[in-house]
Write a structure and sequence with these properties.
This protein has 2 domains: about 200 residues, Cation efflux protein transmembrane domain (Alpha-lytic protease prodomain-like, Up-down Bundle); about 100 residues, Alpha-Beta Plaits (2-Layer Sandwich), CATH 3.30.70.1350. It is built from 9 helices and 5 strands. Strands 1-2-3-5-4 form a 5-stranded mixed sheet. With about 325 residues, the protein is an alpha+beta fold. Helices cover about 65% and strands about 15% of the residues. Strand 1 and strand 2 form a beta hairpin. The longest helix is centred in the N-terminal third of the chain and has 33 residues.
Length: about 325
């Protein structure tokens, strides 16, 4: 998928989710105040945070879609990860707010006024959240978007919130002690914290350039090419949709430049198939001399490229699925 289309698709999904989150937030807050339920009101504030998160996601996707430039030769993709971390930070703030409110209500519990209409309305918001989470998470996996996956995971946290709300409302309807309302809010805050830490983990490993592809997998791919005599270096990192791989390979000194270029392209194609994402491959071929198609190497290539008795050349290839 082209970079522009990739981020346009992310923006379309998040825009729809933003509209839904605003509607859900309004409904929950109104119902919560009508029933005087701290749990329902907390769920409404949670939906407000969801809307704020969607706005952060939209801004992140818009900035990440900017094309590469001279100062940012790798582009702005990592802004997508920063937006994911902002989502997690907002979740942490929200969880803290829910905890503080719940603790104050445990000391002086209010008596909620529960009716079946309120329960039905909250149940409908639960179904909406489940559909959003399933669709958004599947799409995030399909196109390799950490931002969509992060947003889907925070929606999953909202599902836990809604389940807690329903449990409390039904329990109160059948005589549960009012103090359970803020207690369940604390449990909900715990689920929100868990979701926040999961999102932090997903995005931090990308920002820290953790290895994207195991060396053994890359070695397995290279083992299929008899031209590769030795592997001196394997290095990889990734963003949501791209993998960057650097290789130092020793090949036969009789290999022509054209054959080396074909070898690079074949390796790139196999790595793309392996990772299911765009692969930007940089190979440093090391030989005692690389000949041209006529079996000869120019003097300029020989004098400029030779180092420690070996000629080192670099080719860059980007293979898009």
């Amino acid at each position: 998928m082209e970079n522009k289309n990739y981020y346009l698709e992310i923006q379309r999904y998040i825009t729809v989710i933003l509209i839904i989150n605003v509607v859900v937030a309004i409904v929950r807050i109104v119902v919560g105040f009508m029933m005087k339920s701290e749990t329902v009101i907390a769920g409404g504030y949670n939906a407000v945070a969801d809307a704020m998160i969607s706005v952060a996601g939209l801004v992140g996707a818009k900035l990440a879609a900017r094309p590469k430039d001279r100062c940012h030769p790798y582009g702005y993709e990592k802004i997508e990860m920063l937006a994911g971390i902002l989502i997690a930070a907002l979740l942490l703030f929200m969880a803290g707010n829910v905890m503080l409110t719940a603790i104050s209500k445990i000391k002086v519990p209010a008596i909620p006024q529960v009716d079946m209409l309120g329960i039905i309305i909250i149940f409908i918001t639960l179904i909406i959240n489940i559909v959003i989470e399933r669709v958004e998470y599947a799409k995030g996996k399909q196109i390799g978007s950490a931002l969509l996956i992060s947003d889907a995971m925070q929606t999953r946290g909202d599902i836990y919130v809604t389940l807690g709300i329903l449990g409390v409302l039904i329990g109160l309807k059948f005589g549960l002690h009012p103090v359970m309302d803020p207690i369940v809010s604390l449990v909900i805050a715990g689920f929100i914290l868990h979701t926040a830490f999961e999102i932090f983990n997903i995005n931090f490993v990308i920002l820290l350039d953790r290895r994207a592809i195991g060396e053994s997998k890359i070695e397995g791919v290279l083992a299929d090419f008899s031209e590769v005599k030795s592997i001196n270096l394997i290095r990889s990192r990734a963003t949501s949709s791209h993998a960057y791989v650097d290789l130092d390979l020793e090949v036969d000194s009789a290999m022509s430049v054209a054959k080396a270029a074909k070898l690079r392209a074949d390796i790139s194609n196999k790595l793309s198939t392996l990772t299911h994402r765009v692969v930007s491959l940089m190979i440093n071929f090391e030989t005692n001399g690389i000949s041209d198609d006529n079996g000869q190497m120019s003097d300029d290539e020989n004098s400029q490229g030779k180092k420690d008795g070996k000629l080192k050349k670099k080719w860059h290839c980007e293979c898009r699925l």
